[in-house]
Design a protein that fits this description.
The chain has one domain. Helix content is 40%, strand content 18%. The chain has six helices and eight strands.
């Protein structure tokens, strides 16, 4: 039986830490007399998603691979690519020389949600395609496919839930994107990342800034829910533990 390691409580704590760390980073810059433009002041500390990293690590330990190498330091997070030499990931799980899992964690807050959506999309697609092509060519050895995960936190805000219009003068935009909010677009992206087998699982969470006090967040669909991500990941880890037993 899978052990989900009390992930719901840890996820709420991770959300509170996400918003708390952003505010702490902003206040630190104010005190130092150095303020980045816009929302960048809240991300320069680079620790906003650490609560989710800890949650994923707990799932590894709880499902039989506590003796695996779990990497989260920048100097040991590089994997080979096919279209480029290497790519940094946010978390790697390696056991007996095999890549068991690679996870990427991203976030986006307002007020301007349109600025980064295309960049996030291109990055998510590109790094997965690069990795799987390198895997096909033997860069990761002749081993079973690793778990490749993408986790995304987006601010739940009127601007992220409002319909967005697109201009495509020559050919029509796919119907599901027409008038879709940025949260809906992210949900479509995450669903398709999984459906096209670019990622084993992709989670999308929407959370308001007020969640600094209670850790509140919402899923957008069953396929992209945090529970789906956690159960899929735990199952993969448990299967790898059984394989190496």
């Amino acid at each position: 039986m899978l052990d989900l390691a009390d992930y719901e409580r840890k996820a709420h704590e991770a959300v509170m830490a996400f918003w708390g760390n952003r505010e702490a980073a902003r206040q630190k810059q104010i005190e130092a007399g150095r303020i980045d433009a816009g929302e960048r002041a809240g991300v320069t500390a680079g620790k906003n998603m650490d609560g989710f990293v800890a949650m994923v690590i707990d799932l590894v330990h709880a499902n039989g691979l506590g003796h695996a190498q779990i990497h989260k330091e920048r100097r040991v997070l590089t994997l080979p690519g096919y279209f480029r030499p290497t790519k940094l990931w946010d978390l790697l799980v390696i056991h007996e020389g095999r890549l068991i899992a690679g996870v990427e964690l991203k976030s986006q807050v307002g007020p301007s949600f349109g600025n980064n959506f295309n960049n996030r999309t291109e990055e998510a697609i590109g790094m997965a395609h690069d990795l799987w092509t390198a895997y096909r060519e033997g860069a990761l050895g002749q081993h079973p496919r690793p778990f490749i995960g993408w986790m995304m936190m987006v601010e739940d805000h009127p601007a992220s839930r409002s319909p967005v219009r697109d201009a495509s003068p020559h050919f029509p935009v796919f119907r599901e994107f027409q008038g879709a909010s940025y949260l809906k677009r992210y949900d479509i992206l995450c669903q398709r990342l999984v459906q096209e087998q670019l990622y084993t699982s992709a989670a999308l969470m929407a959370s308001p800034r007020s969640a600094v006090g209670d850790g509140a967040f919402q899923d957008l669909s069953d396929l992209t829910s945090l529970k789906t991500f956690v159960t899929t990941f735990a199952g993969h880890i448990a299967a790898e533990a059984a394989r190496s037993a």
